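Teaching assistant here, posting this on the class forum so everyone can see the example we discussed in section. The complex has two components, and the goal was to see what a joint structure prediction looks like when all of them are supplied at once.
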Amino acid sequence: MKKPSWGAILIALIPFTAVCFSVPLWDRVYPMVLGLPFNLFWLISWVWLTPLLMWGAYRLEVRRDAGTSGDKKGGDQ
Amino acid sequence: MSGSAIALTIIFGIILLGSVIGFYAVSRYKMDLEQWTVAGRGFGLMLVWLLQAGEIYTTFAFLGAAGWAYSRGGPTLYILAYLVLAYVFSFFILPQLWEVGRKHGMQTEPDFFVGRYGSKYLAGFVAIVGFIFIIPYVQLQLTGLGIIVTVASFEGVNRTTAMIISVALVAAFVFARGVRAVAWVSVLKDFLMLSAAVAIGIGIPYKHFGSIGNMFTALAQAKPTHLIMPGATKTMGHAWYVSTVLLTSFGFYMWPHAFGSVFTAKSGNTLRRNAVIMPLYSITLLLIFFVGFSALLVVPGLANGDLSLLTVVRKSFPAWFLGLVGGAGAITAMVPAALLLLTAATLFAKNFYRPVFAPSMTDDQVAKLAKVMVVVISVLALYFATHSSPTLVQLLLIGYAGVTQFAPGVVFGLYWKRVTKTGVFAGMIIGVATVAFLVLSKRDPFYGLNAGFFALCLNALITVLVSLVTQAQPGFEGHSQEAIGS
């Protein structure tokens, strides 16, 4: 079994930072964007952005798997 | 026909349609233990997606999220954040889990613990803890069904009666058909749920305020602090948000039913692609938030926020429409309730009772015991649903606090060679005990943090420390095939 690549993990930290750790920075009502309070607008933006980012992570993982498929070791560490 | 009769007729019509699909769509498959629980490992992307959507978009999302938007405000945003991050987290563990699962013939979460740690007692403990914390989740669904029928009947039908009828139906189709029935009913459920969410999420703000933007402007003027954290609460500030989002996103796939669904996928890559696209589905929650926030201005003063979605629908639309929304909500409760019952029953029979008390039981006997347990759990959940009344979101958070205690054992089990069964056992016992103590003594949130998250940190710390002082043990390859109870 392969461990995930560092590139994919770094990509994944972006949404974690954006929607979780940085909450004091964006938890506000104004400015309203597209009729939504700012915090709701921010989160919805990341609902769309996260799949795009993770698609990048997916490409990274698939490319790496294709490169190393010869030495599949299976269930050990 | 009176309004309540029309609404109720439509709701029961939809439930009946769902049940018919459940019973007949699958009659060509022979039902043995493996078919009944993981459907022969043959699901493709589409069906896995539907299956996951079916179990994930629950009454919690439909009534509970609107209820919290109504009664709590800002803190409700955690739901949107955790659904996105849960899939991000799943990207890194599900493909690996699927791979070891296939290699070692795993069907359930405790199977993983036997396979990795070689201890049937550790696995039995996981099974019984999973079993216990699924009960509030089933209770949530039943409470939701009760609310639907009560509001749709204009308080004419008693909530307990409604819950008894629905639990009997759910148990009946689980009993007869297993997981394939659930997957096909969730096709109907997804269709209804999405249509209902779009119609009310846009319709209600437009009808009462002219636009979604006007609704938020009106709400921000009337209650300036409702839309930000801690909203209408005193304790759910930013520390609570961060800790709850982390707890629930790590815990999402630790639910035994979600964990088990991993093994039904066609390939590890199917799961990875799923992890990429699934966050988009949470956009439907936004519509539910609109309803909850509108309801606060349109039907203020409800004692129980969980009633807000249906109450505002009842006030804004004709009775037949209330029936459609109620029907969508009812199916939305019944599909996950069925999966939860199935998982909890299998956990008890196959992963707790057989390995710990009766190793000589045959698969047939295990399947029979599981069916008996479906009835037992239904009755237990019904008992709790009629005897206590936390909000729907609270019920789910209690469950999360419990099941997330499996996360260190799973993540370390996959990625850290040095972790030992003693370490995992010690961490998990401390974690579960801490959750039980803090929740039962009403200390949640604990110093501003989600109590389950505090317990999870303790759990991970103890797992690491105890693992380092106990003797290293072999990984998946070190345990014989027959140790896994399949």
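For the discussion questions: Chain A has three helices and no strands. Chain A has a mean pLDDT of 84. Think about how each of these relates to the inputs above.
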